[in-house]
Design brief:
The protein is mainly α. Helix content is about 80%, strand content about 0%.
Amino acid sequence: MGRVMVRAGFSALNSFRIGHALVLAAALSSWAGPGLAQDPDAPPAPPTAVERAPAADQQAEPNDVAPVAYSEIQELIRDMQARLNKIDTLSHDADEALDTLDTQVDEAIDKLETRDEENTALRDRATGLSTELTALATTHDALSATLAETEDARQSIEDQLQDRIDTLADQLALEQAAISELEGNVSSLSALLETTAAERDQLDERLVVASRSLATKDEEATGWPRPVAHPTDPARPP
């Protein structure tokens, strides 16, 4: 599109230059008239029959324009030639500028094509990222649902564990009470055992005394000594 516009501008400039030259040439021809090609030093040509005998209906006009001098025409030609040369110079500069512009347009078009390819790659990459983002969002939703289910299960397990801990605490309290009661019973039994042992020792001493008294009486009666029972005698019950 840029190349077409540049070429159209170049053609319009050339058409303007040619048209301008034609307009100047037509103006010169209409202004100078037939005297443009005549040398002022040359002898005048004889008049023709038509010029000698003008038509009856032709009347001489008192306001006819006088012929233009040859020097003025040459000056005008030189001025027009200078203008045409200037136009040619400007046209040449314009051609060079247009060539430079054409090169720049080509470079810009190449850059735009390269950028368009980059934009296409970026759009493809954005589409891929959008697809990945959609997949990640779906995975995130699934993980959120799984996490919610896991949280509910964890809360249920914690509640069950708390109930079990409360039950075990109650059982431990009951067992501690039973242990305290058993410890009290053991203390009572220990005291009773100590009392029983003391009573047994007293009975052992009384038995020894009674045995000695009985042995003395038997010895006095029979003359034979009788063995005295000892508290440590295996025959004695514990």
